[in-house]
Specification:
The structure is a homodimer of 302-residue chains.
Chain A (H helix, E strand, L loop, with lengths): L6 E2 L7 E2 L6 H11 L13 H6 L5 E4 L11 H10 L3 E4 L2 H18 L3 E2 L10 H8 L4 E7 L2 H11 L4 H10 L8 H4 L2 H15 L9 E2 L2 H8 L5 E8 L4 E8 L13 E8 L3 E8 L3 H19 L2
Parallel strand pairs in A: 3-4, 4-5, 7-9
Antiparallel strand pairs in A: 1-2, 6-8, 6-10, 8-9, 10-11
Helix pairs in contact in A: 3-4, 4-9, 6-7
Chain lengths: 302, 302
């Protein structure tokens, strides 16, 4: 893949621009040494929309933080990029969970690529499997798709208390200081909405997914063996839920431990199949972006 | 998908032809009742090459039996179809294991699709994951890819003898009356060659894969806990093998029981991911053909 990165737009660490392509290794070195790009010869105070609208740019990689209220600023970035005729790759769950149908329709109309492998299971290619590997006969999908809560539940299975396990997750950098996105299920609800939308090509919103907080469940009922915080999507009855539930001992999902993720997909003709792999991490999410780029290059430029 | 099947070529059960499209449900009914198509209004004594060379045909689905000596008749069917400008979908391991590079190059040169999802793990989308879902940084792949031997080893784990387990596999229709393809590893060697070729885009032959017979291993060493008949592909050292080996208890592959298949893929940036699902079966193999058709239609006709 011959890729030229000509813009980096980051309001915190500083932005950079070079028509001939930025030297990424050098920039990463400076960032890790100084924390920001000021003083670098390619440093430039550019705005997102300057990069998005530049006619020299073919692909926008949108990696702003997830916002599940209105999807901003990612939603406007992606929409504008597609209107400007740019392919888009994103790892931002907000715009895809909230505006899947609008954004995929817009990309289709414009003949553009919209990749979002990194929104669920990071680089483990679940989205590509759902889009290209399986037919539209999925009856049920159950998934362990939040690494932080799976880490906590794995630790609780080893005898730790919820509070101790959460603290360890925070110390290891898995859980945020305010862990409500993870342990109350908001992250899972966004991922559930993305998966329902990909599978049904419909416009389900996160608020349409039934959500039971893991924290509340544990407060009320306590831990029991093989308890997992599951995304459970029943396409026969159109019941979509995020719920804590003990797994059957024989399920391959039992082997999904710690920060790993896994899904069980049941199709009408194929029965059950499983995809298990990393669900988060910087390198793993970068991997997702690169597989989307590979797909885009294979299909759009061949 | 709007598909018109205009030829069926089967020298045993009889062939059929209809320019306007064959009525597949009716044909399947007649076959299950009478065993062959003679007397059906669309019955016609056609030759494979008549169908392959017909200008009205866009896609050839090649499902003749696997032959690991010279790949015939599948190899000549596929080659001729590509020369005639037809897309090809096959579930026949022989031509892909023996002539991967030649056939994929020919398809590329002609701008044609060559799908072979059904050659490994039937409908479980392993080939598509390797082709589109992952980058070229695979360091190791370990797989349980032969349902018959995995069924036998699962039964042996429950206390059955090899002979009893093999007999049950034969009674259930998993193992052939001459089971050497399965229990001596020839089926696995073909699948290993296909996977190495897909991953490295190279021309490895089945004879380049180290093969240890499961039957001989059991005769010499007997069964031990978590013994699996593994395809083990080490891309760092270019050592490719089919060998019986006990699994670590913690591996997600331990949950792959009975006729199921599973692979563990280790990439440089992503670590380990797992794909587990059905590995054989009529409907499952048909599913593979349909996912290839879906992929072909999505990309070639969009």
């Amino acid at each position: 893949m011959d890729i030229n990165i000509i813009y980096i737009v980051d309001p915190v660490k500083g932005s950079a621009y070079s028509r001939n392509g930025l030297d990424i290794e050098e920039i990463l070195k400076i960032i890790s040494r100084k924390g920001n790009l000021e003083g670098h010869p390619d440093y430039k105070d550019v705005d997102s929309y300057e990069a998005i609208c530049d006619v020299e740019v073919d692909v926008i990689v949108e990696v702003t933080p997830t916002n599940l209220v209105d999807g901003e600023p990612g939603y406007s970035h992606i929409k504008r990029a597609l209107y400007e005729g740019k392919h888009v790759i994103t790892t931002n769950k907000g715009p895809i969970a909230l505006y899947y149908k609008e954004l995929t329709r817009l990309a289709d109309q414009k003949g553009l690529y919209l990749g979002f492998e990194g929104t669920v299971m990071s680089g483990t290619p679940l989205i590509k499997i759902l889009r290209y590997g399986l037919l539209q006969d999925i009856e049920r999908l159950r998934g362990i798709l939040n690494g932080t809560t799976n880490f906590i539940l794995t630790k609780m299975g080893e005898g730790y208390s919820f509070e101790t396990a959460l603290k360890e997750a925070q110390e290891l950098g898995y859980a945020e200081s305010d862990p409500t996105m993870d342990i109350d299920g908001y992250d899972l609800v966004a991922k559930a909405a993305i998966l329902v939308n990909v599978i049904t090509d419909d416009a389900v919103k996160p608020k349409d997914i039934f959500r039971m907080s893991l924290r509340e469940y544990l407060n009320n009922r306590g831990y029991e063996g093989n308890l997992k915080y599951l995304v459970d999507l029943d396409f026969n009855n159109n019941i979509f839920a995020v719920i804590p539930k003990p797994l059957e001992r024989t399920s391959s999902l039992v082997s999904v431990k710690g920060v790993n993720n896994g899904v069980e997909i049941e199709t009408k003709s194929l029965g059950k199949s499983f995809i298990i792999g990393p669900g988060a991490g910087r390198e793993e999410t970068g991997y997702a972006i690169l597989t989307d780029l590979k797909e885009l290059i294979t299909w759009a430029y061949s």
